């Protein structure tokens, strides 16, 4: 452990904990790349849509971080749930579509 400490100091290595924002950026980038490779020509529309979702999730996560009780959950789980909720909110606001509605 002493040698490891010396190596870390010599390389200015810092241990950092992944934040909700790190997970947000990772998941959205993965989604954008997957859409680009799978859909090709309509990438611009998908990119714009995902950018809107990203902005919405970012705002939600800033609000979520205020509550210290949230820190007991895994950051990746919180972000995935927030992305899912953001899709629902975005569709309801812009297209008056609710993905939770059931057909009789």
Structure, explained:
- By secondary structure, this protein is mainly alpha-helical.
- The chain has one domain.
- Helix content is 69%, strand content 0%.
- It contains four helices and no strands.
- It has helices at 2-10, 20-39, 43-64, 75-95.
Short recap of the structure:
The chain has 104 residues and is mainly alpha-helical.
Notable traits:
single chain, 104 residues, mainly alpha, 4 helices, flat
Low-confidence stretches: none
β-sheet strand percentage? under 5%
Largest sheet, strands/sense/barrel: none
**Radius of gyration, Cα only, in angstroms?**
19 Å
**Structural class, please?**
mainly alpha
List the helices and strands and how they pair.
Layout (H helix, E strand, L loop, with lengths): L1 H9 L9 H20 L3 H22 L10 H21 L9
Helix pairs in contact: 2-3, 2-4, 3-4
């Amino acid at each position: 452990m002493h040698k490891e400490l010396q190596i870390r100091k010599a390389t200015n290595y810092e241990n950092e904990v992944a934040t909700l924002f790190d997970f947000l950026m990772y998941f959205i980038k993965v989604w954008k790349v997957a859409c680009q490779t799978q859909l090709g020509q309509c990438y611009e529309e998908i990119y714009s849509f995902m950018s809107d979702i990203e902005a919405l999730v970012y705002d939600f996560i800033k609000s979520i971080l205020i509550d210290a009780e949230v820190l007991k959950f895994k950051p990746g789980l919180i972000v995935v749930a927030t992305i899912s909720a953001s899709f629902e909110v975005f569709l309801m606001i812009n297209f008056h579509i609710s993905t939770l509605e059931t057909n009789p």
